[in-house]
Amino acid sequence: MNNNLGFFLSKITEMGGIDLHAHSTASDGSYTPEQLLDLAKSNKLNFIALTDHDTIQGYQNIIEHFSTIDSYLAEYYCSAKQNILNQQNPYKSQTFDFEAGLLWLAKQAKYGKLIDSPILIPGVELSVIFENQEIHLLAYYSGQEIELLDDFLEEQRVARYKRNLELIQRVNDLGFPIPENELDPSPEQPVTGRVKIAKWLVANNYVNSIQQAFNDYLAEGKPAYVPRQRVELEYALQLIDQSNGFPVIAHPHQYGWCDNHTLLTEKITKIANLANIGVEAFHSNASLEQQKMIFSLAEKLKLPFTAGSDFHGTNKEDHQLYSLNYKPIVF
């Protein structure tokens, strides 16, 4: 695993002015990748992670216009170090030290010296199975190595497409005449699913809100719900390790693990024994008590921790993108 990246994510989370969990129209968000990064810039964030479900298309659409950790370090850190070396010995070239570069970058952010802001952290959100329960795994990267996941992500999108065909049939069987091609993927939106169906139901006055669509029809256990094939957590962790990423357990409070300290400790410890991982300790809809519980456990187990709004634009209006002033409450 890219453990240096994991602890860097903790460092910038502690400083604040970051958002490490956001979605675009490439999956189930309402903002295009460009609009999302513009909002991050308007909010004066130092770092923003684009973490769409099962796709990196959004990242690929904007990578030419924003710095990643790797490209920023290559342009500014290495050139600064080389200038120092040139003064000492003009014939000696700089060897890139990623760990030292991250420490330098964190200091640049801390003292408001970032030349390009926000810096884009490529990511993706995966649905996996752990102990017969679906959980979400955020995979973070410092740059283009995220593209090594492309083949796997294509397999996941194929599984989604097959599930979507059955979703459309279920919705029609309930008496809602949704078009058969409503969930067809496009270059702008390669990943579609239940949120798009919910928006169609709202637009056609069958429900009053996206949340009602899920509560009445689309959530697990409801009449239109269709499960899809998901990989085991261990397999996803291996893929992230092989591609030099860093995995973080997304919103642990949403799985019922914060019902008590013992359960949370048991679950996170089991996963941490499988691989080096982090936990999303701070999240838009986690209570203060839940956030403190997850953060305290991360500190006890010496695990990296992150903060993310889980921004989806108008599709989840109670999840607003963080701003420069955001700082986890425990800090």
Topology:
Blueprint: H1 3-15, E1 18-22, H2 33-42, E2 47-50, H3 57-62, H4 69-88, H5 98-110, E3 119-130, E4 133-140, H6 150-173, H7 194-203, H8 210-218, E5 231-232, H9 233-242, E6 246-249, H10 261-274, E7 278-283, H11 288-301, E8 305-308
Parallel strand pairs: 1-2, 2-3, 3-5, 6-7, 7-8
Antiparallel strand pairs: 3-4, 4-6
Helix pairs in contact: 1-5, 4-5, 7-8, 10-11
List keywords for this structure.
single chain, 331 residues, alpha/beta, TIM Barrel, DNA polymerase, domain 1, 2 domains, eight-stranded mixed beta sheet, 11 helices, 8 strands, 43% helix, globular
| CATH secondary-structure class of the largest domain | Alpha Beta
Alpha-carbon Rg, integer: 21 Å
Mean pLDDT figure: 91
| Low-confidence residue ranges | 84-95
Written overview of the protein:
- With 331 residues, the chain is an alpha/beta fold.
- It is built from eleven helices and eight strands.
- Strands 1, 2, 3, 4, 5, 6, 7 and 8 form an eight-stranded mixed β-sheet that branches.
- The longest helix has 24 residues, at 150-173.
- It has helices at residues 3-15, 33-42, 57-62, 69-88, 98-110, 150-173, 194-203, 210-218, 233-242, 261-274, 288-301; strands spanning 18-22, 47-50, 119-130, 133-140, 231-232, 246-249, 278-283, 305-308.
Summarize the structure.
By secondary structure, the chain is an alpha/beta fold. 43% of the residues lie in helices and 14% in strands. Strands 1, 2, 3, 4, 5, 6, 7 and 8 form an 8-stranded mixed β-sheet that branches.
